[in-house]
Specification:
This protein is mostly beta strands. The protein has one helix and 19 strands. It has a domain of 206 residues: Lipopolysaccharide (LPS) transport protein A like domain (lipopolysaccharide transport protein A fold). Strand 9 and strand 10 form a beta hairpin.
């Protein structure tokens, strides 16, 4: 097994994902941490393509984050002012090892698994852009798990460190450990910028659906379905605030509790108390079917 160390010069902010532990960028304003890459079949350096490719059970480790895949491809550019030719002593080493170049992108291809001691993400392909501070997972059976949540999507799961947000696209679904869930065509989670120079506190290791002070806002667009243990609320769009447990649904809203169903234009739902308030639009009215004795 061959081993190589990659040292990107840019350190990204803490990854604003549904699982904030899965961050290859490192803490802001901190010294760059090398990425250690190993592979069972070999590591190839292409000067023309400016890539370093690790093939066969490839693994990249940076701090507490590990990425495994069938193949890992590191893209690099020369640092400004770096010598054009390597020295004789370093002819056989890649420019990333020599320190003459900087990592710009890391691609993971085939059976991708990104994980820490608490969080896991799976996909067919992952692309991590150092400069843009973006990690995009695509492929079949996209899934991300934390001790509190399970996130799945059909098209992609994306992490935007600079904007402190994450997006799940295509039949997106977040299921909390207590059974509550949010489903939609697209779900976007916004996160609080972490204090103490971006250092994570023990309580912030995983971004739970209901963890206040971490995910501060969730926006859902298209075919929104919010479920608690007793109720289901649907609408065209929705906004959920985890710190308070409040959600607002808009457009063709329906609230279902057992055999009871209400319809209106908007609804306020408290996912902690289970209390929902249906609102009528301008000139409209609330309608529904209530069966006496069928429930609260």
């Amino acid at each position: 097994m061959r081993r190589i160390y990659l040292l990107p010069v840019m350190a990204c902010a803490a990854s604003p994902a549904f699982a904030q532990d899965l961050n290859l960028g490192g803490a802001p304003n901190a010294a760059p941490v090398p990425i250690q890459i190993t592979a069972s079949q070999g590591i190839t350096w292409s000067q023309d393509a400016q890539t370093v490719t690790a093939s066969g059970t490839a693994k990249a480790v940076r701090g507490d984050v590990t990425v495994t895949a069938d193949e890992l491809v590191a893209h690099y550019v020369k640092k400004p002012g770096a010598a054009n030719q390597p020295t004789a002593a370093s002819t056989n080493a890649s420019p990333l090892v020599q320190g003459s170049s900087q990592l710009t992108e890391l691609d993971a291809i085939g059976h991708v698994h990104i994980y820490t001691t608490t969080d896991n993400a799976w996909g067919d392909r992952a692309v991590y852009s150092v400069g843009q501070q973006v990690l995009v997972l695509t492929g079949q059976n996209l899934k991300l798990t934390t001790p509190q949540d399970i996130v799945t999507a059909q098209d992609s799961i994306e992490y935007y460190a600079g904007d402190h947000k994450a997006i799940a696209r295509g039949n997106a679904l977040i299921v909390a450990s207590d059974g509550r869930s949010i489903a939609a065509d697209i779900i976007t989670g916004y996160f609080d910028a972490q204090a103490n120079g971006g250092k994570q506190q023990p309580s912030q290791n995983a971004a739970a659906l209901s963890q206040s002070g971490n995910i501060k806002r969730v926006e859902a667009i298209g075919n929104v379905v919010i479920k608690t243990q007793t109720d289901t609320a649907t609408g065209d769009s929705g906004v959920y605030l985890p710190p308070t447990g409040e959600a607002r649904l808009g457009g063709n809203v329906h609230i279902i509790h057992g055999q009871n169903e209400l319809a209106g234009s908007d609804a306020l739902v408290n996912m902690k108390t289970g209390i929902a308030t249906l609102l009528a639009g301008p000139g409209g009215q609330v309608s529904g079917v209530i069966l006496p004795g069928s429930g609260k």
